[in-house]
Amino acid sequence: MWERVFSCPPFRIAIVGGGQLGKMMTVAAKQFGFYVLVLDPTPGSPAAQVADCQKVASFHDREAIRRMAEEADVLTYEFEHIDCTALAELEAAGFPVFPAARLLRVIQHKLAQKQALQAAGIPVPQFMAVGGAADVQAAARQFSYPLLLKACTGGYDGKGNYLLRAPEEIGQALEVLGETELMAEKFVPFACEISVLAARGRDGEVRTYPLSENEHQDNILRRSIVPARVGPAVAGRAREVAEAVMREFAGVGVFCVEMFVTPDGGVLVNEVAPRPHNSGHYTIEACVTSQFEQHIRAITGLPLGDTSLRSPAVMVNLLGTEGHDGPTVLEGYRQALALPGVHLHLYGKAITAPQRKMGHVTVTAVNLEQALNLAEQAQNLLRVAAAGRGEE
Ligand code: AMP
What we know:
Blueprint: H1 2-5, E1 12-16, H2 20-31, E2 35-40, E3 53-56, H3 62-70, E4 74-77, H4 84-92, H5 101-108, H6 110-119, E5 127-130, H7 133-143, E6 147-151, E7 161-164, H8 170-177, E8 182-186, E9 192-200, E10 206-208, E11 212-217, E12 220-226, H9 232-249, E13 253-261, E14 267-273, H10 283-286, H11 291-299, E15 313-319, E16 326-331, H12 333-337, E17 342-346, E18 351-352, E19 357-364, H13 368-381, E20 383-386
Helix pairs in contact: 2-11, 3-4, 4-5
Adenosine monophosphate binds at residues 125, 148, 150, 155, 158, 161, 185, 187-188, 193, 216, 219, 270-271.
């Protein structure tokens, strides 16, 4: 039935992961009239609320991933902690998976990722593999304190990272990080953190987006400011570095290149995400083509869209509040939506928990000062609470 009513090349897109990124990818794909299947272990996941079909299964369920692909023309994913082998098997059978499994395998492993970037001449903080306390001491001799210890796999939102301040903390750091492969990294006293979204099409064309300036608290992104408040030389360098990353990895889809801006105006790549990113949510309202539409265009072989900025923007994450666990309510949305240029996104997660990403607000305005001001007002009005806990 769907095939018969379809008027463009028919694409059926399988997305592994049904969270907010999957949801916003799905909305973009549905705008093109595409058919979307999502795989997520939670029934009624955010993406499933807008997709045609959800497969309820674990991200590590190879058989479920394979069966979903049988009903689709192309497969993508919304986060990197999924079973690479399942994707590699699909590719080996000739099924299109974007970004490619070989790339995901490198990106999933922080040390392998940094080694690949360094080998390609892309600037990264100094790092080394560490196996135990003696190696950490050797890293400290080279990098001095503080330094970062990072788990090579499975980390996100700062989980799996330990900021090591003194030799006395080595034992505790290794205990907290547990039995896992580790790397040490020189601490970068950055002037600010930025990210550049970049898209690469199936034909190899690369386009980058304007820089986003990102502020984190407890390792979680709180606010993105666009355009980033850096000079044109830094902005130009950051976009060049992002293009170099895209050329090196040669993946298809939208990628996010997170970087540190050093006090002398240099840029160092912290991390590459092989997918649309939280710091790129501003593109929905502020760019000609959103990162989600761009990702769908890229993986389906459509021409890439215009990445120009239409207006300055500030994006603020709506996180679950401390002490609030349970059915989600958003307080203050009427007042916040009465402010000009406020765009509210709620992901449709039934249950809130402290620090959980429940939604975001993007404020667009004629200038950045106004956008910052309105975003602060909106942020002060909005609070994610659990039902029945609103009056504390
Ligand atoms: P990651 O999960 O590795 O991206 O790290 C999360 C956050 O930790 C980053 O956004 C930075 O704020 C901080 N961070 C990570 N690596 C470093 C580093 N080498 N120097 C300074 N801060 C870092």
